[in-house]
Amino acid sequence: MKSLIHHLYKAIILVMVVMLGACATTQQNERVSRIDPLEPMNRAVFTFNENLDQYLVKPAAEAYKFVMPDAVRRGVTNFFSNIGDIFVAANNLLQGKPKEATSDIGRFLVNSTIGILGFFDVATDVGLEKHKEDFGQTLGVWGLSDGPYVVLPLFGPSTIRDTVGLAVDLKTDFVMNTNQLNADEKIGVTALRVLDRRANLLDAGQLLEDAAFDKYSFLRDSYLQRRRNQIYDGDPPPLGD
Amino acid sequence: MRRQLLKTILFSSCVFLGMSSAFAQTPDTADGLVKFVVEDVMTTIKNDKAIQSGDLRKINALVDQKILPHSNFQKTTQLAMGRNWSKATPAQQALITQEFKSLLIRIYGGALAQVKDQKIQYKPSRAAADDTDVIVRTVVIGRGDPIQLDYRVEKTANGWKVYDINVLGAWLVESYRNQFNDQISKGGVEGLIQFLQQRNSALAAAK
Question: Which residues contact A153 (CB under 8 A, 6 or more apart)?
Fold first, then answer.
């Protein structure tokens, strides 16, 4: 699994380098050419992802949602979210936010015990708010700019900076690194995680279809805004446009 | 004739009374306005089974009565159009605003049916007392992750009006800027209008 991802990244970077030269000539307005110089390649990967989703991931997620009782699905979401809180805490520490990190650790302790291994999110009920942090955001807080927008195979919208962040996130990921699980089990857990995530997005997916005039650029512009918002923890300074 | 006059006077004084009570209710700060509208809308939905089950006609009526009087859709549309706004004639501007408004109500109206036991957390305001363009920050807390929901509100002669919303970190206007621009560079202002009309009728047919 790990070496697969490694190879995947090598391939992505290779393709990007090749395409970099090819796409300099396409028509774009000034703003778009600044944020998305790799647009032709990105659109190709986007189409690949869309097809993969349409024929494989989305139907599987729909089946999962149909079969699983809501309470169980909620439990699965909470379980992964709970493990994630350790990494959220680590990122909050790296971003110089010890108060938030302490709260994240508190969440993990409360949910792992009273919340029965994280299946119930009791911490939110007692007022410990869930934070969303990842290494891409940490790099952003450290002052790294986004770099060009990139659509990654399988993972979707990203930027050069967030791709580096994602690589670190995967490298330090609990499921990928634990020696409690063998390779097959890891694939199983990863599949469950993907299904859980996609099932939670099913409703939003239709909304996106209806709202966007062009899904690719709508998703891109929303993603870039959302990431900037996350880096500033919901309160970004206004953009000089 | 005199009767008619009496009726007119009676009617207009009723309207006037009604209006002044509406004015008395509507708060004079941006925070107050958002809170007023949000609470009003949520209470209405919680007491209305038809809206909860997704009755589009009732949702539209709710939007018309409770939300539209406090929003400025023309400004939303104008900002999303950016420089292209001035390329459109006033008639086209009105048409685009109308179509964009219908589209947004169609898309987000369904979300109103989801209102159940969510709590709204209002973040403290940092606006100065004399600010006329203010961001009001809120968080929707329900099942699952908290949802960031912010509003851009502008002071007008007719009170505070919402003209942009931010869902999970993305402002509506900003997300649509490129969408409008693309359509206009493809087919001009007329092309955009046609696109919006087609999208709206497709969505109407699907529901």
Answer: A8, A12, A45, A48, A49
Contact between B29 and B23 under an 8 Å Cβ cutoff? The reply is no
Q: What does the DSSP assignment read for B95-130? A: HHHHHHHHHHHHHHHHHHTT-SS-EEEEPPP---TT
Contact flag B169-A225 (C-beta cutoff 8 Å): yes
Nearest-angstrom CA–CA distance, B122 and B34: 9
Residues A150 and A42: their CA atoms lie apart, in Å, by 6
Measured in whole angstroms, the distance separating CA A44 from the mean position of its chain's CA atoms is 20
**pLDDT at residue B204, as a whole number:** 86
pLDDT exceeds 50 at position B21: no
The interface predicted TM-score of the complex, written ipTM, equals: 0.80
- Is the per-residue pLDDT at B13 higher than 60? no
pLDDT per residue as tens digits for the range A169-197: 999 988 888 888 888 999 999 999 999 99
CA distance B185 to chain A (A): 10
* Disruptive mutation site among A79, A221, A228 for chain B (greatest number of B CBs within 10 Å): A221
Report field, pTM of the whole predicted structure over 0.90: no
Cβ atoms of residues B72 and B156 within 8 Å: yes
SS3 B139: strand
Which DSSP state fits A220? H
Given a contact cutoff of 8 angstroms between Cβ atoms, the answer to whether B192 and B179 are in contact is no
For B39, the enclosing helix (H) or strand (E) is helix B30-46
Q: In this structure, how many other beta carbons lie within 10 angstroms of the beta carbon of residue B70?
A: 19
Residues of A in contact with B83 (CB under 8 A): none
A189 contact partners, CB below 8 Å, separation of at least 6? A175, A181
Q: Tell me the pLDDT tens digit for each residue of B70-106.
A: 999 999 999 999 999 999 999 999 999 999 999 998 8
**β-bridge mates for residue B137, sequence order:** B150
Record: contact B175-A200, CB cut-off 8 A? no
Angle between helices B172-206 and B90-112 (to 10 degrees): 80
Indicate the residue type of A121. Answer: D
DSSP states of B144-194 as a string?
Answer: SS-EEEEEEEEEETTEEEEEEEEETTEEHHHHHHHHHHHHHHHHHHHHHHH
Q: Which of B153, B165, B149 is nearest to B127 (CA)?
A: B153
* Cβ neighbours around B116 below 10 Å, total: 11
User: pLDDT higher for B205 or A20?
Assistant: B205
